Amino acid sequence: TVYGLAPIEPPPPPQRPRAPDPLPMDEHDVASVCGPGRLDLPHAPLARIVSHRHDAQRSFFVQGDEFLLDAGTASGLRVGKTLAVRRQFRVPPAAGSRGEPLVGEHTSGVLQVVAADPHAAFAVVVYACDEFVRGDYVEAFAPEPLREADPLGLPDYRRAARILFADEGQLMGAPRRLMVIDRGRDHGMRAGQRLTLFRRGTRDGRATRTIGEAIVVSVKDQSATIRIDRATDAVYFGDGAAPQTPPGATPPRWVATASR
Length: 260
Description:
By secondary structure, the chain is mainly β. Helices cover 3% and strands 41% of the residues.
């Protein structure tokens, strides 16, 4: 028989504060958040992701994780504020008219601030489109108002937009893929609007072949994000997207020159 002192049990690990439950999100809000957009103007993000709240070595983050942000109440962050997480990407010059470079931004999800002081804040992931990485920036979350898709109509080729790029700067799209066009709120575009996708001829620039249909899911002043619903061919940058006018509706008027 061997006698000895019982090992001392290690102290229990410190209790981490439980992250709040994710906020319910409308399906259309999610569609209007995730995916690509065009960065039309220089902007200053509210904050950037510094690290995971409980594991500073991690660099990729997913649903339910908590982040440390490099700004706080002095920058307008407060407990309960909802934020969209974005990162920039460069688009090859060939995707822009006359070869000028474009800058896109990918939205990867939504955070909610759970604690904040003047110069730092903690936020929890309430919806993840895909992964988050250290250095992603956050901006105020403003989902598009809920709108049902318009009824089918006739395409107005005179107001056609041009497809610029897909997500992460890729130049080709397919059904269920999100892409960006060069027409936005200033041109009468709105969420729920249907578009006819077509390919122009190489000589006169007129529509020669219909290649699919899409729906506008989010709108900025000078650009919009669309979701391809149907396609008979791959959709490339430079293809046209003509807004459909429902029967009996009057198309909006705007002063601009259609893309060539």
